[in-house]
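Forum > Structural Biology > Help requests

Title: Can anyone predict the 3D structure of YjgF-like protein?

Hi all, first post here. I have the sequence for YjgF-like protein but no way to get a structure on my laptop. I'd be grateful if someone could post the structure tokens.
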Amino acid sequence: MTLKESVLTTKAPAPMPFFSQAIKCNGMVYCSGSIGMEPTSMKLVEGSVADRTKQALTNLSEVLKAAGSSIDNVVKVNIFLTNMENFAAMNKVYDTFFSKEPKPCRTCVAVHQLPLGTDVEIELTAHL
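Reply #1:
Sure, ran it for you. Structure tokens for YjgF-like protein below:
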């Protein structure tokens, strides 16, 4: 029987009570979506979509570390933007986190709305 294990770190925003920051299962880490929220204040970082992209990816990096993995082990990324005009600004920051080859598989879609009125949310999957 395969067991799944919840991942929790205080170095990323606490999850709402109905989901985990991440789940480890079968050598993989499945991270919930992260927005550009600062973990101690639990408020969105001010500034641009680039600032919130950086914070979201920093949060996800901390979750991966807590799981025993790292950003270098990411295999799939899903990005949600409320405005595709933010695509280039998001990509510029994204590339600073995923500069090594091979780069992860990725999907980026435009959505109508995201939690707390943010403009970007990112979820990812990594191996241990």
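The chain has a mean pLDDT of 97. Residues 36 and 52 are 4 Å apart (CA to CA).
Shout if anything looks off.
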